[in-house]
Amino acid sequence: MLGRVLSTHAANNLSALPDAPLHCVTQGHGSDGAFRAQIGLPGHQVPRWAAGTKLRYVICAETFPHPEDAALAASNLAQAIDQFADVPVTFEEVTRNTKAHFRVVYKDPVCADEANVLASAFFPNRGPRNTRTLHIYALAFRKRHIGSQVQVLAHEVGHILGLRHEFAPESAECRSFTYGRRNPDSIMSYPADWSTAKVTQQDIDELRGLYLDTRLFLQDDAGDDWHFQTITPRPFLYPYENTRRNWGFMAAFWSFRRFQRHQQGNATAR
């Protein structure tokens, strides 16, 4: 199942199942725009990037505790993105002082609601730059979860491409509908073990269908029309989040990234 589209009237935090101890908060609707998804769409809108869009992103390495953490997150995000290679939207990591369409930021939890959060992202939008932030929380670097960080980030990339949680409700309070078939194995579900999660072929096929759909609108089972909002994103220059980090810290980060890419290149050549 793809694109369980939420109306702008949703008020609840839909991010977690009752018994899910670890989750992302991308489908939450909090007032803090930098840390919650920003839908910002009037009526029944289906947001998607324009087919062929290249989403450029910047790793805000200075927000991470150590250069190694930032480099690991960058490498894991690249691996997560690779799982969506057949989707008509591509991604490119750019250097820190280059304009980008979204940023990647480390975040410590600041309230009880964030204590069990691994990551949060955003849906396609035209909003200001801070509404396009992928947050990776401290919990994702703990020993218990660091081995499944690629899978967690693949889940967040799904949100960035427009996917909602597989279990998003279809209620009057939060209108949604199913594009395609339900998929309990989707990367957008909450697995009991994140290390077993993966992007399925159904995820890819339905994402391709969404992006290549030429209809002006979709119709749900209730007969309501949902209109596509196709977005060509504007790039921004993201200012440094932590000016106390010196050039040595950033140089160490890029040194780790070069080493990672060299290792990946060697592995590909074998």
SSE arrangement:
Layout: E1 23-24, E2 45-49, E3 54-59, H1 67-82, E4 90-94, E5 102-107, E6 117-120, E7 133-137, H2 149-160, H3 201-212, E8 217-219, E9 225-231, H4 247-269
Parallel strand pairs: 1-6, 2-9, 3-4, 3-5, 5-7
Antiparallel strand pairs: 6-7, 8-9
Helix pairs in contact: 1-2, 1-4
Pfam family, one: Peptidase_M10
InterPro entries: MetalloPept_cat_dom_sf, Pept_M10_metallopeptidase, Peptidase_Metallo
Organism: Podospora anserina (strain S / ATCC MYA-4624 / DSM 980 / FGSC 10383) (Pleurage anserina)
- The side-by-side strand order for the widest beta sheet comes to 1-6-7-5-3-4
Structural classification:
alpha/beta
CATH C-level class is: Alpha Beta
Stretches where pLDDT falls below 50 for ≥5 residues?
1-21, 28-42, 169-173
Helix content: 10-25%
**CATH topology heading:** Collagenase (Catalytic Domain)
GO biological process, one term: proteolysis
Domain Peptidase metallopeptidase: 45-202
GO molecular function: metalloendopeptidase activity; zinc ion binding
Pfam families: Peptidase_M10
What do these coordinates show?
The model is unreliable at 1-21, 28-42 and 169-173 (pLDDT under 50). This protein is an alpha/beta fold. A six-stranded mixed beta sheet has the order 1-6-7-5-3-4, covered by helices on one side. A three-stranded mixed beta sheet has the order 2-9-8, with no helix packed on it. It has one domain: Collagenase (Catalytic Domain) (3-Layer(aba) Sandwich). Helices cover 23% and strands 16% of the residues. Helix 1 runs parallel beside helix 4 (247-269). The protein has helices at residues 67-82, 149-160, 201-212, 247-269; strands at residues 23-24, 45-49, 54-59, 90-94, 102-107, 117-120, 133-137, 217-219, 225-231.
